[in-house]
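Worked example 3 (structure in, sequence out).
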């Protein structure tokens, strides 16, 4: 693929479709003594907007990006990590509405798997965004030093 950053635009369009399909489903977060209820439509819609930003950066700043291998790693890794998190969120929503179990151990195993998978996906995604910033800064610094403007 010659311009792989178009995957970000495709992912944001797909996220908009998923946001409309799951706009009534809710995610329940219990943090300490506060209980949050967030709709999946809001989460996926915000993620869709978020993925337009790196697409715009890649559209506007391709000469500033240093090595193309880092760019490909950032793009493919970000898409993989986000699809992992999105898949787990959609699967968890389906599990909540379909499966009712009386076995508490099975429920805790599923919740542990779900939380671990989401945390791994989010951590991978954040590390790849830091890689993007790193290679963007490295490209800007190398361009300035090669042109003699230090």
């Amino acid at each position: 693929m010659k311009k792989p950053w178009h995957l970000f635009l495709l992912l944001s369009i797909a996220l908009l479709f998923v946001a409309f399909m799951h706009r009534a489903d809710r995610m329940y977060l219990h943090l300490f003594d506060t209980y949050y209820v967030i709709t999946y439509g809001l989460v996926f819609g915000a993620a869709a907007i978020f993925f337009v930003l790196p697409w715009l950066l890649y559209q506007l700043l391709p000469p500033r990006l240093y090595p193309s291998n880092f760019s490909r790693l950032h793009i493919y890794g970000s898409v993989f990590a986000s699809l992992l998190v999105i898949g787990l969120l959609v699967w968890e929503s389906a599990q909540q509405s379909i499966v009712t179990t009386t076995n508490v151990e099975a429920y805790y195993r599923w919740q542990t798997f779900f939380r671990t998978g989401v945390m791994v996906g989010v951590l991978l995604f954040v590390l790849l965004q830091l890689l993007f910033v790193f290679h963007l800064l490295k490209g800007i610094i190398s361009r300035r030093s090669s042109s003699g403007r230090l």
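Notes: The chain is about 75% helix and 10% strand. The chain has one domain: 6-147.
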